[in-house]
Task: inverse folding
């Protein structure tokens, strides 16, 4: 069966760097039981009565610090990936962008398929842009596709996955590391490999798949770069809420490295194929400040691999299209 449509799915982004837009986005995102799995009767009052009253204003300030003339960096980066994949497949498949939450929501994108997906011997391939598998990212995309298929709203649609150690993906991330190091003019003493964190409880429930995928990516990247394992640390960022999350925490690792006498670090975030709030603001601004304040001297921020042809090739291959 030949795939004639690819839908690349990223997490999503507010439509503007305003409290109102952030509130709309967070309500949908944090209201997904696969993202926050507390019982609805318990979680909904906390979300509506506490989080959505205070958090949107603070987060909007963060978004304003990274907003561009193109709007959200995550949106622009996702479009850039889709354009690159479209160039490679050269008309053999239509390449669309969707987001799990917010503008261009996946549900609407799949329904508005121009009847392509239902054509005989044709299919739509939905590819989450999350190489490390967990329910709150790739899992919620796959679950929505399955739900819509069972309900009969869509037909001829399947989900695909980008392997955490796919060669083109690792090549693209490695190229971004080398570019960042070249810009810095010196090789850092230590490489921090930071992934989005999840609660430990989620990882146990999923059989440790997420941590295994993060390790697979890190090992493949270090091998590709020829980087010594003793000069690298795998860690997790973006903690939200009071329960225990995966460790070590990136927010703690950076000042700890500086306190140990490490003067220069590079931070790469392979779980994010596009730059956004978690990379540009959390790492590029707050992470940098924390490392320098603790005694570090050189902080090298590695950009996401969006726009690199090796990544585009890996995504096309993941959808079954050889380029």
Result:
């Amino acid at each position: 069966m030949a795939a004639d449509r690819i839908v690349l799915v990223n997490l999503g982004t507010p439509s503007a760097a305003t409290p109102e837009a952030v509130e709309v986005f967070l309500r949908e995102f944090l209201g997904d039981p696969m993202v926050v799995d507390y019982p609805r009767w318990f979680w909904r009052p906390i979300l509506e009565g506490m989080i959505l009253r205070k958090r949107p204003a603070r987060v909007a300030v963060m978004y304003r610090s990274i907003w561009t003339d193109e709007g959200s960096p995550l949106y622009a980066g996702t479009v850039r990936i889709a354009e690159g994949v479209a160039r490679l497949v050269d008309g053999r498949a239509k390449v669309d962008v969707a987001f799990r939450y917010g503008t261009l929501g996946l549900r609407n994108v799949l329904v508005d398929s121009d009847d392509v997906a239902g054509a005989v011997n044709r299919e739509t391939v939905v590819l989450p842009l999350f190489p490390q598998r967990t329910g709150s990212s790739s899992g919620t995309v796959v679950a929505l596709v399955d739900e819509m298929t069972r309900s009969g709203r869509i037909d001829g649609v399947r989900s695909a996955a980008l392997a955490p150690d796919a060669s083109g993906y690792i090549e693209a991330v490695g190229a971004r590391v080398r570019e960042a190091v070249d810009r810095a003019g010196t090789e850092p003493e230590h490489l921090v490999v930071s992934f989005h964190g999840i609660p430990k409880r989620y990882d146990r429930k999923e059989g440790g798949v997420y941590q295994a995928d993060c390790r697979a990516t890190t090992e493949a990247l270090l091998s590709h770069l020829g980087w010594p394992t003793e000069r690298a640390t795998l860690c997790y960022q973006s903690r939200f809420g009071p329960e225990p999350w995966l460790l070590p925490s990136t927010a703690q690792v950076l000042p700890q490295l500086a306190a140990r006498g490490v003067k220069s670090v590079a931070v790469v975030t392979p779980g994010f194929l596009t730059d956004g709030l978690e990379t540009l603001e959390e790492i590029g601004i707050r992470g940098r400040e924390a490392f320098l304040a603790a005694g570090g001297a050189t902080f090298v921020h590695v950009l996401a691999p969006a726009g690199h042809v090796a990544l585009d090739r890996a995504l096309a291959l993941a959808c079954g299209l050889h380029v």
